[in-house]
Amino acid sequence: MLKADYSMDINLPQSDVWRYLEDWSNWAKQVPGYQTHKNISPTDSIWELHGKAGSITKDVKLYVKIIEITSPSTVQFRVRDSEDRCLGSGCFELSQLSSRSSTLTCLLELELKGLTGKISAPLIGSLLPGLLEKFVQRIAKPLTEADSVALPL
C-alpha cells in the first residue's frame, strides 16, 4: 500500500475554502496530468489523466467516487483505474486555524495490483508525495488569487 499526505495553510476562512472544495469538479482539474473529466452522477465521475515519469508516458482513466461529504471539513473518496489494477482511497480534511485562515490536508492511499503494479510501485511510491503536494498547491492557487475565482460574500 502506497501512502502520502500533504497539508497546507491557506489565508482564507474555512467557509470560503469549503465552498470551493465541496464541488469536486473544481479540484478535479487540479490533478497533475489532468486531461478531462465527466460527471456520471452527483458522486461518480471519470477522470482522464496523462502521466509522465522520465521517458515513460501513460494515459489513465480513473473512476472517482465521493463516499462522504461532511460539511465544512471532510470529503472522502475512492479511486480505481479502468482495469482495477490501481485501487485507492483518500480524503480532504479542512480545519479552521483562525477566523481568517485554515489548513487543507489531503491523504491518499493506493494499492497497485498485478505484476505491473509490483514493478511500478517503487517509482509511483517515490513520486506520490510530490504529486500530492503539487495537487494541493494547485487547489489552493485559485483560492488565493483574487481574480481567479469569485467567492460569495
Topology:
Blueprint lengths: L1 E9 L3 H8 L2 H5 L5 E6 L4 E10 L2 E15 L3 E8 L4 E13 L2 E12 L1 H31 L9
Protein name: SRPBCC family protein
Q: In words, what does this structure look like?
A:
The chain is an alpha+beta fold and 153 residues long. 29% of the residues lie in helices and 48% in strands. It contains three helices and seven strands. The protein has a seven-stranded antiparallel β-sheet, covered by helices on one side. Strand 3 and strand 4 form a beta hairpin.
Key words describing this protein structure:
153 residues; alpha+beta; seven-stranded antiparallel β-sheet; 7 strands; globular; SRPBCC family protein; Polyketide_cyclase/dehydratase; START-like_dom_sf
